[in-house]
## 1
Amino acid sequence: MTLEVRGLTIDIGDRRVVDGVSFDVPDGARVGLIGESGSGKSLTALAVLGLLPDGALASGSIRWDGRELIGLPDRELARLRGDDIGIVFQEPRTALNPIRTVGRQISESIRIHQDVSKRDAAARAVAEAARVALPDPERIVSRYPHQLSGGQRQRVAIAMALACRPKLLIADEPTTALDVTIQSEILDLLLSLVEDDGMSLVFITHDLAVLSQIATHGIVLEDGRVVEDAPVSQLLTKPRSPVTQGLLRDATATLWRPGGQP
């Protein structure tokens, strides 16, 4: 299945925050949306799922497997979320319900989209917790989000997003709030799960170093517009736009070095 975005614009009041964005995510592709804060990358991704904030108006075209999503009724969009398209947000502390166990939250995401019993969904929750490498999954599913570390909460969020085996995963800066070691573990986990399931991936980040670890193609945004659209290898070695050149300077100052040098 292919995601096709054509001429996407998003207006909030009298301000245009996304202006004519176009890109494709072919079946099985790993595409990154990268840019500084306020560039429009997260809003672009939220528009795909019909999750724009109140007052935001999207126009243009977003097609999933040939089906137009802009203007689709909320009930039909809800069927796509989690079933066809999963999403992992930046901060799991706010994405997870603090008064429900993580196992219940994983099992609920399954029961919403699949006709399974509570018992079977609970068993699936344990299996999904194990799949994302949570320690002692039988025990951890009985815990609440505040009882887990940041990295563990993000693994729960990933388990929820992937429990129904969506065809496309949108990951909205899922490692930004984590330290470098945990960040690397989450990136490795996401990459392995995407490859194992044959999913497509839209990965949102402001960090070219992070993008280089998980995506093969990058869409660079500035002020709601696409300023560069190229393979990640080209963004790393021959960036054309000043925005990408600035992102590369930031990357080489932190996690990534040309030629893999520390």
## 2
Amino acid sequence: MSPATNDKSIYDGMSKKDRQALSRELARIRRIEEQKRRRRNRIIAIVAVVVVVLGILAGAGWAVYSSVRASFTGPLNMLSDGILLTGSSSAVTATTTDAIQPGEQPVPSELDTASVLRLTEYVDYGSADVGTFESTNGSSLQSYVSAGYASLELHPVAQGGPDSYSARAANAVACVANAVPDAVLPIHNALIAKIADLPDGGLSDDELVTLVSDAGLADDSIASCIRGNEFSDWVTDATARAEAGIPNADVETLTQTPLLIVDGKAYTGALDDAEALSTFITETYTEVADPPATEGTAPTDGTAPTDGTAPTDPTAPAPAG
């Protein structure tokens, strides 16, 4: 505390010279204390600013970390890197799962061949070969599923690279799977229908949003996901994983699309030969399945497809439900 310089009693009995000397000393002390006060306040202000800045940086850092982490998290309902579709009474539904977390590996779906055919298809929506195969065989394969004869696991991949249309289309499928998994099949079909007439560079993000909306799925969160390419990192990683190894199959890696695996066996026939695929499916089912003698057979009352859209083997599994 500075001396009480307004107290005149401290000068009592002093000569003029001493009073002047004392006044100068008191003034010097006041200046020193003022300097200390200002310096202390300045330090307090600096510390406060540093604390605020560190808080902002910490918040920004966490936001960046969370954003980066989220970008490597896979979509919900695609824990296997694909989405598993099953059918009953003509309705096709998706199997719900957790999402793949950063640094974790996909969990392959169980290959239970005792009940229904297990169809697994790797699809690149920018591939003309995929368009050829799907236009020839897609409706037949899906009729197996809707009738309950088979399950279908779709794996969208992007062999054109992370900046390709294939990657953006696969991201669109992931966005739908993440939000409305039961809508994946109509979106898949809409993307397939576009392959034959794709412009250079494929559809834009806005056009992909329109495609999804026109297929009956007008959802702001899905539109934002597509425009923001929210699962682009997952698409890149899932493609790399498929190119490194294929689970539950007699092929080691994905080299080209489409790749159809039926009960663990890869179809290697002509893409535009529906009869060849039907024969392959029937023969594969006969080799793999061990059906009961009198139960689980395909309907013989005319309800089973007879035009190549369902297994023709008489022991083909009956529709679930």
